[in-house]
From TrEMBL:
Family to which the UniProt record says this protein belongs: Belongs to the metallophosphoesterase superfamily. YfcE family.
Listed Pfam families: Metallophos_2
Superkingdom of this protein's organism: Bacteria
Species, as recorded: Seohaeicola nanhaiensis
Domain Calcineurin-like phosphoesterase: 1-190
Coiled-coil portions: none
Protein name in the entry: Metallophosphoesterase family protein
Length: 199
């Protein structure tokens, strides 16, 4: 299956145009959160992506809540947050929000490590984990070199060992990738990124 994935669109119209155009070649499109900025402009962000007519799976970032994304997402989209879905035989599980909590205040949708662990616990098996936040120690460094990722997410990747763990959130690590056990971890960013995954 040919998968197009991105994160952290943040209302970037040119990036959205690229994603929509590329989606014509995709079997599945994945958006790993932060479609708008600071809880503003989500409807506009979804309008920018409305040309995507392939299966679309989204998780909320820290810039939008689960309720906000569920309401704004197109009818054919599947929104995941502490939940899973199967698309064409691929088992997907999603967890959005900022993990651990960010310094951005009440406009940021965040989880503690304990809350993230609880939401990830029901996932026993998955081909792809769709995350907003990266795992601790991989694709999670800011410009000062600080590791800002989640221990709960890293532990879930170790436990589940999906084929892919897709994330975003830490802008300075966009495009960074590595492995945890058998799992390829990729911090996506708002560019078109392709994956081939078989169920």
């Amino acid at each position: 299956m040919k998968i197009l994935a991105f994160s952290d669109l943040h209302l970037a119209r040119a990036r959205a145009r690229d994603i929509v155009a590329a989606s014509a070649e995709a079997d599945l499109v994945i958006g790993a959160g932060d479609f708008c900025t600071m809880r503003k402009g989500l409807a506009e962000a979804m309008e920018m992506l409305e040309g995507i007519d392939k299966p679309l799976v989204l998780v909320p970032g820290n810039a939008e809540s689960l309720a906000e994304l569920t309401e704004a997402a197109p009818d054919h989209a599947t929104v995941l947050h502490g939940s899973g879905a199967e698309v064409s035989g691929l088992r997907l599980f999603g967890l959005g929000y900022g993990v651990p909590t960010t310094p951005f205040g009440p406009q940021s949708c965040d989880l503690t490590e304990a809350e993230a662990e609880d939401l990830l616990a029901p996932c026993a098996v998955a081909d792809i984990l769709i995350l907003h936040s990266p795992p601790k120690g991989l694709a999670d460094e800011n410009s000062a070199g600080l590791s800002l990722g989640s221990t709960a997410i890293r532990e879930a990747i170790v436990r589940i060992q999906p084929k892919l763990a897709l994330c975003g959130h830490i802008h300075d690590s966009w495009g960074k990738r590595g492995t945890i056990g058998r799992t390829e971890v990729v911090n996506l960013g708002p560019t078109v990124t392709w994956f081939e995954v078989t169920p």
